C-alpha cells in the first residue's frame, strides 16, 4: 500500500481522475514566504461515516481546505482518492503541508459520497466536515487527532482520524573528514597551502558551492578538520547526485591556484573509509598537455558519520508539553481603565491592546497544551480588601489555583480583575519570572517546557533583579515573550531581549537567549485589518521558541521520548449470513 503514497493534488488514474487539485499557484501566503520549518504529511481515516447509498455503502472522498489569514476565505488544498463501498475508509493519498510552529493554520476536512465522475462537489452527497488547526493535529498525543464529523443536523456523522508525520528525508547531517597525499607543489618558496571546496550539482547541470574547508598551511599531505553539513545542503536529499570537490592552494591575495578536482556522490561517500573513497585529484589542463601525467595527488575520506537532527516536532510527538503562563501589567502608568485613553480601556465593541496580544499568542500556544489550563497572573496592583500591593496575583482571585480554562478563560479573568483591583505600581517583572522559574526548576527532564508571556507598558522598575532572574532562568526549560503596548520608549525591553548583547547579571552571562521582545505598535494595521496584523505579531514572537526549546534540550543532552505506536485501524470482519 505505502508504495502508492503520493501527495494530494497529483492525479491518479481510475475513479479519482476527475478530481484535480484546485489549489492554484496564486495562493501565495504573504506570511509564509519564509522557509518552512518542516513539512508534515497528513493521513486521513474515517470510522462510521453516514451511509447515503441505498443498495451499497457510501463511496467516500476527503477534500481538504485551508484558510487565508487576511480574508478568512477557504481554499481547496487537495483531495484524496475515492474509496468504493465503505463507511470506514483509510485514504492512501496523503496531504503534504508546510508546518510553522508560529502560525495558526486553520484546516477544514469535508467528506462526500461520490456518485459520478464529475469533479463538481455539489453533484455529490455531503457526508459532513471537521474543523481543526494543523497545530492541534501535531500537538495531539502521538500527533494523532480523533474528532467527530459534524455538519448534518440530527445525524451522527462518524469520526475522522488525522495523523501527522514529519517528513524526515532531509533531517540528516553528515560528519566527514578528509586528508590528501602528494598534492602538487604550487608555491615558489614553500609547499602548498591546500583547502577543499565542495559543490552540489543542480538539475540543469550547473554547480552550487556548499562547503569550504579551512586552509592547512605549508604541506602537500594535509589532514583537514572534520566538518558537519546537512544532507539537504550537500545533495538536496538525492543520494546519487554528483558532488564536485575542487582542491586549491591558498594565496593571500585571493588568487588561489587550482590544484585539481574529483567527483563523487553521497552514496559513494556513505561507504565510509575504504578503497572506494580514495580519489585521484585531476587537473584537466595538465592532463591535456602532459602525456605522462597521472594525477595531482589523492584525497582520501577518513570518516563518514550520519547524524539525524532531532526536531521540535520529535519532542512534541514524544509527549513534551508546552505550559503557557500569562502575566499582565496592572500598573497606574497604563491609565484609568474607564477612560478611552487607557491601555486597559474596556471597550465593549473591540479588544484593547492587552486583549489582542493575549489572544494572538495564546490561541497558537494552546494547541500544544493538552489540558488547556493556563495560570494567569497580574502585577503592580492594589488588591481588595486591604489594598496591599502585589507583583504576582492570580487574575481569577484564587492564589491556590490560578488556572483559567483556555484563552477565553484567561480573557474573562483579566476583565474581572480590571473591575476589582486598583492600578498602582511599581512595575516589577522579577516576581512573575521567578514564579514560572520555580515550576520550570522542578521538571528538568524534558517532559515540560514553560513559556511566559508578559504584556506591559514597558516602564520597568526592577531592572537589576529582572536581569538576575533571566540569567538564572536561562538554565531552565523556559522562554519569555514580552509584548510592549503603548507609546513608551522600550530601550530597557530591547536590552532584556539580548539579541544584540547577551544579557548578564553580576558578571554572569545568560546560558542561552530566552527572551523575545516586540512592540505592539509595530503591528497596528493602519487599514484596520487586525486579523492580519495579529497573525504577524504571533509569528514574530513565537518564531524563536522552537530554537530556544531545542537549545535547552541540546545543552542538557535530552533526547525526545519515543512516540506512542502508530494507530492501526481495527480490522473489520465481514459477517456473512448463513
UniProtKB/TrEMBL annotation:
Q: Name one GO molecular function term.
A: calcium-dependent phospholipid binding
Q: Which domain of life is it from?
A: Eukaryota
Q: List cellular component terms (GO).
A: plasma membrane
Q: Give the InterPro entries listed for this entry.
A: C2_dom, C2_domain_sf, C2B_Copine, Copine, Copine_C, VWF_A, vWFA_dom_sf
The region annotated as signal peptide is: none
Matching entries from SUPFAM superfamilies are given as: C2 domain (Calcium/lipid-binding domain, CaLB), vWA-like
**PANTHER family, per the entry:** COPINE (PTHR10857), COPINE-8 (PTHR10857:SF133)
Please report which protein family the annotation says this sequence is part of. Answer: Belongs to the copine family.
Its biological function? Answer: Probable calcium-dependent phospholipid-binding protein that may play a role in calcium-mediated intracellular processes.
Protein name, entry field: Copine-8
Native source species: Caloenas nicobarica
- Taxon lineage: Eukaryota, Metazoa, Chordata, Craniata, Vertebrata
Protein encoded by which gene: Cpne8
Amino acid at each position: 500500500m505505502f508504495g502508492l503514497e503520493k501527495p494530494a493534488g497529483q492525479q491518479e488514474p481510475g475513479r479519482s481522475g476527475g478530481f484535480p487539485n484546485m489549489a492554484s499557484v496564486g495562493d501565495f501566503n504573504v506570511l509564509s514566504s519564509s522557509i518552512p520549518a518542516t513539512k508534515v504529511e497528513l493521513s486521513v481515516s474515517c470510522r462510521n461515516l453516514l451511509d447515503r447509498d441505498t443498495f451499497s455503502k457510501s463511496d467516500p472522498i476527503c477534500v481538504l481546505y485551508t484558510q487565508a489569514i487576511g480574508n478568512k476565505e477557504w481554499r481547496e488544498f487537495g483531495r484524496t482518492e475515492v474509496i468504493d463501498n465503505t463507511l470506514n475508509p483509510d485514504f492512501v493519498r496523503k496531504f503534504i503541508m508546510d508546518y510553522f510552529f508560529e502560525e495558526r493554520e486553520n484546516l477544514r476536512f469535508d467528506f462526500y459520497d461520490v456518485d459520478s465522475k464529475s469533479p463538481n462537489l455539489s453533484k455529490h452527497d455531503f457526508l459532513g466536515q471537521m474543523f481543526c488547526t494543523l497545530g492541534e493535529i501535531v500537538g495531539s498525543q502521538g500527533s494523532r487527532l480523533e474528532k467527530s464529523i459534524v455538519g448534518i443536523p440530527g445525524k451522527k456523522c462518524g469520526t475522522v482520524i488525522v495523523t501527522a508525520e514529519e517528513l524526515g528525508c532531509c533531517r540528516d547531517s553528515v560528519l566527514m573528514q578528509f586528508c590528501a597525499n602528494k598534492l602538487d607543489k604550487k608555491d615558489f618558496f614553500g609547499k602548498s597551502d591546500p583547502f577543499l571546496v565542495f559543490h552540489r550539482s543542480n538539475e540543469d547541470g550547473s554547480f552550487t558551492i556548499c562547503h569550504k574547508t579551512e586552509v592547512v598551511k605549508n604541506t602537500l599531505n594535509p589532514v583537514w578538520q572534520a566538518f558537519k553539513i546537512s544532507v539537504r545542503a550537500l545533495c538536496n536529499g538525492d543520494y546519487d547526485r554528483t558532488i564536485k570537490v575542487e582542491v586549491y592552494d591558498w594565496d593571500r591575495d585571493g588568487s588561489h591556484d587550482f590544484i585539481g578536482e574529483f567527483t563523487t556522490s553521497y552514496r559513494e561517500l556513505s561507504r565510509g573509509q575504504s578503497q572506494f573513497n580514495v580519489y585521484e585529484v585531476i587537473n584537466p589542463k595538465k592532463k591535456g598537455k602532459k602525456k605522462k601525467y597521472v594525477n595531482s595527488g589523492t584525497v582520501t575520506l577518513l570518516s563518514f558519520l550520519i547524524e539525524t537532527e532531532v526536531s521540535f516536532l520529535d519532542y512534541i510527538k514524544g509527549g513534551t508539553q508546552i505550559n503557557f503562563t500569562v502575566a499582565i501589567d496592572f500598573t497606574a502608568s497604563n491609565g484609568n481603565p474607564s477612560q478611552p485613553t487607557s491601555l486597559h480601556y474596556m471597550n465593549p465593541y473591540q479588544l484593547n491592546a492587552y486583549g489582542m496580544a493575549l489572544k494572538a499568542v495564546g490561541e497558537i500556544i494552546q494547541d500544544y497544551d493538552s489540558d488547556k489550563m493556563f495560570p494567569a497572573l497580574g502585577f503592580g496592583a492594589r488588591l481588595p480588601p486591604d489594598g496591599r500591593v502585589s507583583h504576582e496575583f492570580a487574575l481569577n482571585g484564587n492564589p491556590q489555583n490560578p488556572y483559567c480554562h483556555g484563552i477565553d478563560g484567561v480573557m474573562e479573568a483579566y476583565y474581572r480583575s480590571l473591575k476589582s483591583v486598583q492600578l498602582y505600581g511599581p512595575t516589577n517583572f522579577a516576581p512573575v519570572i521567578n514564579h514560572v522559574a520555580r515550576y520550570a526548576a522542578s521538571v528538568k527532564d524534558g517532559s515540560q517546557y514553560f513559556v511566559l508571556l508578559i504584556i506591559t507598558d514597558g516602564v520597568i522598575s526592577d531592572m537589576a533583579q529582572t536581569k538576575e532572574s533571566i540569567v538564572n532562568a536561562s538554565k531552565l526549560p523556559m522562554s519569555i515573550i514580552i509584548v510592549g503596548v503603548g507609546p513608551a520608549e522600550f530601550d530597557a525591553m530591547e536590552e532584556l531581549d539580548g539579541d544584540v548583547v547577551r544579557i548578564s547579571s553580576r558578571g554572569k552571562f545568560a546560558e542561552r537567549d530566552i527572551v523575545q521582545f516586540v512592540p505592539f505598535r509595530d503591528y497596528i494595521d493602519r487599514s484596520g485589518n487586525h486579523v492580519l496584523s495579529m497573525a504577524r505579531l504571533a509569528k514574530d514572537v513565537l518564531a524563536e521558541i522552537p530554537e530556544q526549546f531545542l537549545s535547552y534540550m541540546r545543552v542538557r543532552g535530552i533526547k525526545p521520548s519515543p512516540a506512542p505506536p502508530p494507530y492501526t485501524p481495527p480490522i473489520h470482519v465481514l459477517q456473512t449470513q448463513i
